[in-house]
């Protein structure tokens, strides 16, 4: 480079910096392709952020995407964060959201938990890169973006030219309570009032995170028009909801749903009313919705945690107490099929693992109603299995008998020991909670011309088989081919054949795919 070229470069750099600073002062969105640097930090519309390097990536942790939901903002919709003028150090994960007391993530948790992590390639070009946004699972009561760390994400995704985003959302009653009940006058509010005062904070946290990404991702070299949202288990069901809610369906372009669907029965239970009232009562809060909310805001976290523990109910059906709810706002219709018809048609990957429900069946009530304690594995028999079938069947006449016939009587196995019945429970729970809902959602989206791809993961790590009588896949997708498939899909909207994808799903294939166990 000659002296003249060097001078031109320096002038361009000064002009670019000045331009970025003007946008910073104006609090407006950064210009596409302009990666603003402010004393070594990335300049976002909210202020400068400084992260750190790790191998081929730059990592930014604990960025607030909303005001802390504490004090008067507890049990309220998330609000945009206040801008900051000094450099925000983004070198450590923020606290996890408060979840189940015995969960690993709960050891470093706080109400002030609405933080985001962004990881990008170190030597990025001026070309905006595709974005992969991860939604964790955990049954809406556990989980954290912190759980996944950043090292493997950088090695597996960021190194391939992808900007990765993860974030936290509120859990348990902090993320979902009901301020009305159609059967209890003192909790009753009108439909329109529910629209104005929806209490689905978790879903609104997710919406706020997506909106924040759209505002800041260009500053990190990400393309706001190439966002893939992915999740597993309850996170997958969340992604399912995000694809069809009018509040969020326009905010991203592609979806990956790993082992979960909004069509699942555990996403549509009716027990949230009772659960909320028990929580209010345990917290010592009574009266109108307004009175209850005011009371809850005065309680300490310790008091709320005691109320949560006191109001916890051992479910006898396969449901989750803090699932999403049709509220006339985030989900304006009870008919998810009509929402699918009205939503943008997104390229989507759906998948499940073989023996999907094994970890729930064998993990001490991880999924209410079907967990079998280790102490009862060897004695689990037909009678115990029938009791689970009854819980699933509920008040549907004849369903228990039909399930018994399908899973037990029609089996060709000659051995009817505890392992046989545990396997049958895994099969039934997998069909009920995962496979059938996934196929139902896939079928409806294909009917409405969504580009859909399917996979079935059948890998099983022998290390996971110790003392476990069920053989099948583990829940984590560690296959290199699978990672390459996600990378390709994030970049192009199409997974490679080598990923093991069953292929583009068509309606006439439904029966044959069901025959594979998916």
Termini Cα gap: 60 Å
Please write the string of helix (H) and strand (E) elements.
HEEEEEEEEHEHHHEHEHHHHEHHHHEHEH
Give the low-pLDDT segments: 1-35, 180-198, 470-478, 506-518
CATH architecture of the largest domain: 3-Layer(aba) Sandwich
Strand content: 5-15%
CATH superfamily grouping of the largest domain: Alpha/Beta hydrolase fold, catalytic domain
Assign the structural class, choosing from mainly alpha, mainly beta, alpha/beta, alpha+beta, or little secondary structure: alpha/beta
User: Percentage of helical residues?
Assistant: 25-40%
Domain Carboxylesterase type B: 42-466
EC number: 3.1.1.-
Protein name: Carboxylic ester hydrolase
Enzyme class: hydrolase
Task: Describe this structure as you would to a colleague.
The chain is α/β, with parallel strands linked by helices and 518 residues long. The protein folds into 2 domains: 3-232 and 272-311, 3-Layer(aba) Sandwich (Rossmann fold); 336-514, no CATH class. The protein contains 16 helices and 14 strands. The model is unreliable at 1-35, 180-198, 470-478 and 506-518 (pLDDT under 50).
Task: Summarize this entry quickly.
This protein has 518 residues and is an alpha/beta fold. 35% of the residues lie in helices and 14% in strands.
Entry keywords:
disordered C terminus; 518 residues; alpha/beta; ten-stranded mixed beta sheet; four-stranded mixed beta sheet; 2 domains; disordered N terminus; hydrolase; single chain; Carboxylesterase_B_AS; Rossmann fold
